[in-house]
Design goal:
single chain, 200 residues, alpha+beta, Tick-borne Encephalitis virus Glycoprotein, domain 1, 4-stranded antiparallel beta sheet, 1 helix, 8 strands
C-alpha cells in the first residue's frame, strides 16, 4: 500500500529548495548591480604589482605579501645636512704653538692652547663609541684687534663640530695626532691640523 504521507514532505522540500535558489539568484543580482555602479574591476595578472594597502601606492618587493617600504631620505651632505666645509690654508700646529694664516688679505693668528678632552677610542681597541677630542684655540686678527678663544670638537662623522666662525673668519679642526693607544706608552705632544679660511 502506497504511503501518501511522503508527498507533503517532498513538496515541502522542493519548496524549500526553490526558496534557496531564488534567494541565491537575488543575492547574485544585488552583487552584480553593486559592481555595475562602481568602478570597473581591475584586471590582475602575474605581471600586476601588488598594492600597498597602507599608502595606496605600489609595493616594492615580492608578491607574497612582503614589501620593501624603505623611506627615501632627503639629499644631505654627509650626516650634517646644510654643513659647508670652509676652504683655506691647512697647517699643523703643535700644542702651545701658533700659526699664521691669510684670509681675504688680512693676517689671522691661531694658537693651539690646550686639550680640554680626549676620549677618542684607542686605535688598538674596538669601541662602542668612537669618542671625541675638544681643543681650545685662540684666534686673533691684528688688523682689527680681534682676539677670541674658541673650542673645536673632533668627532668622526661630525665635521660641523670642529668648525667655528668668528666674524668673517672660520677655523676648522680636521685632525689630532698622535692617535690614542691603550698601552701605558707615553704619547708625543698633541698636534692639531687646522684649516682657516673665509666663513661660509
Amino acid at each position: 500500500m502506497r504511503n501518501t504521507n511522503l508527498v507533503p514532505f517532498r513538496s515541502n522540500r522542493l519548496s524549500l529548495m526553490a526558496i534557496v535558489l531564488m534567494s541565491g539568484a537575488s543575492n547574485m543580482g544585488c552583487k552584480s548591480r553593486l559592481f555595475s555602479f562602481g568602478e570597473d574591476m581591475p584586471v590582475v595578472n602575474e605581471n600586476t604589482p601588488p598594492k600597498d594597502l597602507t599608502t595606496g601606492g605600489v609595493a616594492i618587493g615580492d608578491t607574497n605579501g612582503k614589501s620593501d617600504k624603505t623611506p627615501i631620505s632627503p639629499d644631505t651632505t654627509g650626516s650634517t645636512g646644510s654643513f659647508v666645509a670652509i676652504q683655506g690654508e691647512k697647517k699643523d700646529i703643535p700644542m702651545g704653538s701658533s700659526a699664521s694664516y691669510s684670509v681675504n688679505g688680512q693676517k689671522v693668528d691661531v694658537k693651539f692652547e690646550k686639550v680640554l678632552e680626549d676620549s677618542r677610542c684607542p686605535k688598538d681597541v674596538v669601541c662602542i663609541w668612537e669618542g671625541q677630542a675638544k681643543l681650545q684655540f685662540s684666534l686673533s686678527i691684528p688688523s682689527t684687534n680681534l682676539n677670541k678663544t674658541v673650542v673645536a670638537t673632533l668627532r668622526a662623522g661630525h665635521p660641523e663640530l670642529g668648525q667655528v666662525s668668528v666674524g668673517s673668519v672660520a677655523l676648522a679642526l680636521t685632525k689630532l695626532t698622535p692617535d690614542v693607544v691603550s698601552t701605558g706608552q707615553k704619547a708625543d705632544s698633541p698636534v692639531a691640523t687646522v684649516v682657516v679660511g673665509k666663513a661660509p
